[in-house]
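Project standup — Tuesday

K.O.: blocked on the structure for the chain from last sprint. Re-posting the sequence here as requested.
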Amino acid sequence: MADTKTKNKSITMADLMKSAKASFVSLKKGEVIEGIITKLTPQEILVDIGSKTEAVVLEKDRKILKNLLSSLKVGDKVSVSVLNPESDMGNTVVSLRKFIGDKVWDRLSELYKNKKAIKINVNDSTKGGFLVSSDNGISGFLPNSQVSFAETGQELVGKTLDVLILELSRINQKVIFSNKAISGSDNFDKAIKKLRIDQKISSSISNITPFGIFTSFASEDGNVEGFIHISEISWDKISQIPQNFKPGDKIEAMIIGFDKKSSRINLSLKRLVKDPLTEKLEQFTTDKKVSGKVIKVLTTGVLVDLGDEIEGLIKKEKIPPTITYSVGSSIAATVSEVDKKKHRIILIPVLKEKPIGYR
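H.V.: unblocked you, prediction finished:
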């Protein structure tokens, strides 16, 4: 009886040792293994991966750590990447970045496919738009063209907006959001149904950018965003928005087009007044003899100052190969064409002798 007990005890110990040895996993750096979250705090995240000790999650990025804490709970099954099979403390060190990244992109794909709105925080502004992120770690870009300044106002940094995903590419790690897509084209069509080209409207400046002025116009059927490109501010050539324009100012402008893609009406300030150069251009007729001085030599031809802010252009193909012009040179020419849109006269140089091959 005693021998049987001893024999059974011996077998049981061997089995236990063999079982314990088999249960300890031999890990390699970079290996991906399944596990279960056993502890989840800002100070420590532990995962049971079947090793002799629990694995420690190493994550120094606060944004990712915040995402881990908000999207996981104790008992969740996860996949971890091994960073160090055994640290000095005897623990396996792992990362949850790939796992959480997969979850984020799966969520993005779902939102994009189903055209569901998501709230994003506007973190910073750039020349072309805004850098944004969501509470669960989704980062992306919100272009100026996809912001409804009519609804949100001028200062967006620090605000929270409802957006749709406009473009999504995991390969390029690219997410483009749209705030305008929330309202849809039907609302825009309804809001502009009583507006027409050349109509004068009064609107408020909502945002000023290097390339133009955004305005907000309250129509009978809702707010409409307007945009005045820098080229439509003044008949004079300007390189920056004049400082006398400020957000909140009321301005009168003329409707020159409807941009349905951007849900925006295009406006002009300069067309409220007559083009000051129109009458001056009428003085130039085809075949009229003129004279002026070269103000710029271009790869496409030569610019000539004809006086009264009128420029003439001699195209490159009309300049004989034997003749060169330099800034300050006096030129006699004949009017070939009047380009009223560009406020420019197309010229042909008057030559004393017609070179061979000249046309």
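K.O.: great, moving the ticket to review. Confidence is low (pLDDT under 50) at residues 4-10. Residues 115-182 form a domain with the OB fold (Dihydrolipoamide Acetyltransferase, E2P) fold (CATH 2.40.50.140).
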